[in-house]
Design goal:
Layout: H1 21-45, H2 48-55, H3 59-65, H4 69-85, H5 98-113, H6 116-128, H7 133-142, H8 144-160, H9 169-180, H10 184-189, H11 198-216
């Protein structure tokens, strides 16, 4: 198939595109259809034909925005991760005790990573990264790396306010997210037992914060 020139589509930059609003809406339409197909069929089973059909557009229109399936999957992944990160703008940290901020953040992380979409997208990204390294890079940049940039400034401020010991905020941020995903995440990933309920998630969130503060909290 002869593809039409690709129109850059950055779903994570506030929806801004270089073409008219109609093109912007088409891009969102493509991403919505792709998200549905990737979740139902996985990356390997998803076809461009199915994605175009789900989005209600032609393949030519799809290719105007995305050159191939890998690029489309990366865009869906980036959009979803950023959407999840922005679900709770109230998670500001400047005027809040660090323990309170960390607890809300732990709840946010756990609810996403233990949810059906979070689990599905993780499995797909890990399974396809060997063949499509860009997918792995996108998953890291919009997941672990974005989480680090979200948390590190809060930890740095908490050190200056005397709530935490002197630490490397980037490293400590990765430690926090590692504790968040301990046990529950892997049990859910490998489908061991029933999915955790709200009470178990809340208990794990609180233990995460308690464990982190035992390691990095000021005691004087």
């Amino acid at each position: 198939m002869k593809h039409e020139p690709t129109i850059p589509c950055d779903p994570c930059a506030g929806g801004a595109m270089s073409r008219a609003e109609r093109g912007e809406q088409k891009c969102a339409q493509v991403l919505a259809g792709a998200r549905q197909v990737f979740l139902s069929d996985g990356y390997e089973g998803a076809s461009v034909d199915d994605i175009a059909r789900s989005a209600g557009i032609s393949k030519a229109t799809l290719y105007r925005h995305f050159p191939d399936k890998a690029a489309l999957f990366s865009a869906v992944l980036a959009q979803e991760c950023r959407t999840q990160a922005n679900l709770h703008p109230e998670l500001g940290y400047h005027d809040r005790p660090i323990a309170e901020f960390l607890l809300d953040l732990a709840r946010d992380v756990l609810n996403f990573s233990l949810g059906e979409f979070g689990q599905s997208i993780y499995r797909i990204a890990v399974g396809e990264t060997a063949r499509f390294p860009d997918i792995g890079r996108t998953f890291y940049d919009t997941g672990s790396e974005m989480n680090r940039t979200r948390l590190a400034p809060a930890l740095d401020l908490a050190v200056k306010r005397g709530e935490l010991v002197d630490l490397d905020p980037d490293y400590a941020a990765h430690v926090f997210y590692g504790i968040c995903k301990a046990d529950l995440f892997h049990r859910r990933l490998f489908r061991i037992g029933d999915p955790p309920d709200a009470e178990e998630i809340e208990r794990h969130a609180r233990r995460t914060v308690e464990t982190f503060l035992r390691a990095f909290g000021r005691r004087d």
